[in-house]
Amino acid sequence: MPLVSTKEMFQKAYEGGYAIGAFNVNNMEIIQAIVEAANELKSPVILQVSSGARKYANPTYLKKLVEAALIETNIPIALHLDHGDDFEICKACIDSGFTSVMIDGSKHSFEDNIRLTKEVVEYAHAHGVTVEGELGKLAGIEDAVNVSDEDAQFTNPDEVEEFVRRTGVDSLAIAIGTSHGAFKFKPGQTPKLRFDILHEIEKRIPGFPIVLHGASSVSQEYVKIIMAHGGKLDDAIGIPEDMLREAAKSAVCKINIDSDLRLAMTAGIREVMDTKPDVFDPRTYLTIGRKYVKQVVAHKIKEVLGSDNKAE
Ligand code: G3H
Ligand code: 13P
Ligand code: ZN
């Protein structure tokens, strides 16, 4: 099946009260783990590529690996640029066959964000590609954007209707308390998301797909494996899965997960390196890393997002 756009995926997710997982891809093992899990569970999936991933793996290698995934599977897969920060990177991805791009203008003023987002939308729509914009700022480290906790700003519901209307975006990433990375809350802090803001936004733009970034749950199962095998990840805390389940039933149609995959891969590699110090064949430890990433993706699809059995 060829790559699909996110348009139909989001429409079905909105109506069906579930969300599509958008998983970050950086190498062959991660791509294999994600698409094998999604394929076995008959779930649509979004593979997303950051500019850091493009630098690490080379855009051509990533694109060809995704093409291999299309041959090996039979599910709707969208290829999405994560956190594009200027027109050029969005154009490069559109020109190379991505079916969706994010233009993250959240570090700019409202007017500059609109101007940049609109420019990308015009080019993308002329090429049949969907666009995700962002309003509000998440805490944590984004590619090329480092937003401290103090600078994080929740999305202002008063701005969303105007932003969507003037830019023509197809989906909107909002800030309601999620953040990037594995340290989302301080020890002793109770994790909290501003569902009141989400519901207000839903009222202002009914039927419009919302995106949640920074949605890893930082499963303690994998943190424990990492710690037991020499890692140091004290106080890693993520978004409780119940909150993501609730979000998936609302207008949230896309949930971004990267850190949980990094933790699973690291847990597998550390476990092998530590328990089998004589191993030096990368296939041995990457096999376990890939297995753990696949387990995480399957768990998200089935137990959190509810996108299993939704592939046509
Ligand atoms: O939101 C950021 C994603 O986790 C991608 O991270 O820019 O280090 O590839 P990266
Ligand atoms: P996490 O760091 O919570 O996995 O978020 C990933 C993300 O938002 C990618 O855009
Ligand atoms: Zn993000």
Descriptive report:
The protein is of the alpha/beta class. Helices cover 48% and strands 15% of the residues. The protein contains twelve helices and ten strands. Helix 2 packs parallel to helix 4, helix 2 (28-40) crosses helix 12 (282-305) and helix 3 (51-57) crosses helix 4. The longest helix is centred in the C-terminal third of the chain and has 24 residues, at 282-305. It starts with 5 loop residues before the first helix and ends in a 7-residue tail after the last helix. The mean pLDDT is 96. The chain binds glyceraldehyde-3-phosphate (G3H), 1,3-dihydroxyacetonephosphate and zinc ion (ZN). 1,3-dihydroxyacetonephosphate is lined by residues 24, 82-83, 180-181, 213-216, 256-260.
